[in-house]
Amino acid sequence: MSLKWGLIGASTIARQFMVNAIRVQADGKIAAVMSSSPERGQAYAVENNIAVAVSTLDELLAEDIDAVYISTTNELHLEQALAAIKAGKHVLCEKPLALTSADARTMVAAARAAGIVLGTNHHLRNAGAHRAMREAVAAGRIGKPIAARVFHAVYLPENLQGWRIARPEAGGGVVLDITVHDADTLRFVLGDDPVEVSAFTQSAGMAGSGLEDGAMCIWRFKSGLIAQSHEGFTTSYAGTGFEVHGSEGSLIASNVMTQKPVGTVMLRTASGEEELSFDHEDLYVRSVRRFHAAIHGDGQPAATGEDGIWSLASAEAALQSASSGKAIKIDPKLGSMK
Length: 338
Hints:
Layout: E1 3-8, H1 12-23, E2 28-34, H2 38-47, E3 52-54, H3 57-62, E4 67-70, H4 77-86, E5 90-93, H5 101-114, E6 118-120, H6 128-138, E7 145-153, H7 158-161, H8 174-190, E8 194-202, E9 214-221, E10 226-232, E11 241-246, E12 249-254, E13 264-269, E14 272-275, H9 283-295, H10 305-324, E15 328-329
Parallel strand pairs: 1-2, 1-4, 2-3, 4-5, 5-6, 7-10
Antiparallel strand pairs: 7-11, 8-9, 8-15, 9-10, 11-12, 12-13, 13-14
Helix pairs in contact: 1-9, 4-5, 5-10, 6-8, 8-10
């Protein structure tokens, strides 16, 4: 039996990654796409061989669909997800789930009450590199984890700039775009939760309207581990990476903070260096496969709604820290608090 999807948002990410990820599933089918612009929606449907294009959410939810993928601008996620949940549709939503962790908790509670599967599309959890790092940490191959560093400063291509650098009300800025991913990836790889963050943000020439296009964060985790992350929209040549340093060894990963299944992971210990092998499956294909399995009662999405609350509460705390000049405690149950 096929599992029929509706796309909420005629987005670049859906075209580049999700359309294929859904269609390569044995039971995956895209039934309809919604765009607030009828012209864009029609053109998108033709370009991507989607039978139905609609311009309102009500029309999309009236279609014969089982699940929705939400990739609209951030301020629209909550209302769209709640409407889909009310209509009995499973929801895979791009990060951040909403503009505030309080709204994200509302979304998660609604899905739980309705028996709906809700996933956060944190694609990096699905990277073979990060799963190999998580397994190495859990197996004790670096001893007790002490510190971590994430390098995730990139150059935001012109076709993706738009609202991300100009519209605070839409949830623009690098923290809600990239820091949420880094917080989630740190949680996933370390098997540990952040409890406090100190952050500096900058506007280095790309973002306007008071938005930040660079951030550096220092995180403290429950275990006592400390981590550093650098996010940016304005660095063309930085390269990305992820390091975890423990009492008995270090994991050094290069070119892994990306949407593509690439990069390398090196384990360095007293016995020398070992390059870890990992699968190179498409991150989005794996995300959708896990989501389909969850709908069929087998496990959970790769990143749950609760994971989405954690990453958003972490990003929220980073923004509070940058504006207040103080370290901010992170509590996903209450939203970030001073």
